[in-house]
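Record 1 of the preview.
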Amino acid sequence: MKVYITLFLLGLSVLIKAEDAELDYGFIQENGSVTARSMAMGGSSTAAGWDYEAAVANPACLTQIRSKEMHLTWGYRSIIDSAWDGNGGNGANGVSENKIKSIGYIYSFPVIRGSLVAAVGYSRPNDLLYIKSLSNNSGWEEMQSEGHTGQWTAALGVDVAKNLGIGFTYSHIRGYEDFSRRDVNVELNANDSYTGHTFSAGWLYRMHYDLYFGGSVRFADYISLTNRMSEDSLKDSYYYPYQFPDENGTFIVPLRLKCALAYVTTPLTLSLDFGFSSWSGLDYTFEEQSVSNFQKVFKDQFNGSFGIEWLLPVVPVKVRAGTSY
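->
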């Protein structure tokens, strides 16, 4: 068994969300990377994610792994509030988190020809960390949220032809988001907890000249949501608490497609990904009400990413960089 330690050197990315402020739920956005290698390469892993990232991004990439591997990625994130307004208010606080990003195990079955590889693990594609705080001579206001979207995953990759591998993934989704808003008069607290499942499939075609063409399809996610909200109001120097009734919702997230081209050699890897998400097909019911007539809130989105990995010629160190949008 091989052990790898990866240093996240450089990565630039833009988080792509599909909705406006009317529906601010953590799972209504593009999934982020779950391994340090993929994050450093801007998330371009659909054809070149030959590690645990394959179980999440494209299970067909598992066919390129020929050994047993244990994987762990741990992340630290810090946000410093720099908000300001025209009334002299300035950001006053910051927030940080230190938590596991992904953990998994990959097993390559001994076969006579081709490849048969399985992977199991847990990952957090999105961390829901946010803060906005304003303070001036007349008062203060603060909004903060924390949480994550997590998924337990089982994936299988298999060669079905000399140059073609396919793969399948099942994920059980669980997550939460705690939100709070406070000022001198009101304190509002909300908790979203959700659970669901999703299936995905992918392919990887090994072309000539060290080129690889891959793609993946993430089928409709089915997610159940429970929202709990409470409010404390200050009046006449006393706080008056109020607990809102729990609200339950059911979401069906539409198809998400990705395709990619990668050039992979021992010293150099170049990867280019393109994706499409049909967010306009998002549908849900919430407290017996449907918003199918308000799909203009959700917009179909294209996204892309590019990554590079270079093995230095003098010392055994790999340098990775990437960008995504």
